[in-house]
Amino acid sequence: MTRLFEHPPPEILHSSHPAHNLTLVNSDNAPPFRCNGCMEPGCGPRYTYDQGGAGESFDLHTCCALAEEEPTIKHPLFRNLKFTFLVEPTPPVQGRLCDACGDPARGFVYHCSKEDLDLHPCCASLPERILQDGRLFKLQRKASRPCGLCGNNGGRFWAYRSYFDGKAVDLHVACMKEMARLSWNAALENRVGGAQIVRPSEASIESMLESLPANTQSSHGFDQFRRIATSVAGGIISVISGNPAALITAVVGGVLQ
Ligand SMILES: [Zn+2]
Ligand SMILES: [Zn+2]
Ligand SMILES: [Zn+2]
């Protein structure tokens, strides 16, 4: 996994933007951005150079900005594999997807040459286990159970699995990213109009969990399970938006490896 930097440096000079220092913006309220490293949307902490006025800013997720410090990583899902940081995917770039979220890999990426796998740096920082209020959500390489968000069975990409009432429930990472994308798009549009920023909405997560089978939803304790899943999904969205510390208190076992 990408390393969690407890004290990220306040300023860095990055090889992808050598003309200026990039400053750490550690605010949850800063506008959303598109990372100039991995090309994926972001929200929350970032390294930035802002030209001011109407000038374009240059932004990097903190995990993307600091990935050169951590050129090789392992992920608990692939214990024997090594992932190497690349500033662009290996050819053919066209059609390369992140094996965690299923979105295109177009920029900074962790690549495993042995199995030809690619991970966005933010996706690589997703923990293997999340323990929230006594419920365990464990990361799987592939979904195989109904997703609590989209209701679809299975999927090629990562999912967090938990159990409710003896039934496995998967939360697709791709579905959580899709939810976040809707908020990102809304926020980016609002920014143009100068309005307030929209954060990924937990209300949308709750309503999507209603796609679980009706007999599950009427079970005792479902409301509590839904609250827990909502909060887990919110944490996962924060991590894939570029805030790897969001889940640190909920993670089981050694994340700092
Ligand atoms: Zn990035
Ligand atoms: Zn990804
Ligand atoms: Zn889904």
From TrEMBL:
Pfam family, one: C1_2
Domain DC1: 81-124
Keywords per UniProt: Repeat
Cross-referenced InterPro entries: C1-like_sf (IPR046349), DC1 (IPR004146)
Top-level taxon: Eukaryota
Descriptive protein name: DC1 domain-containing protein
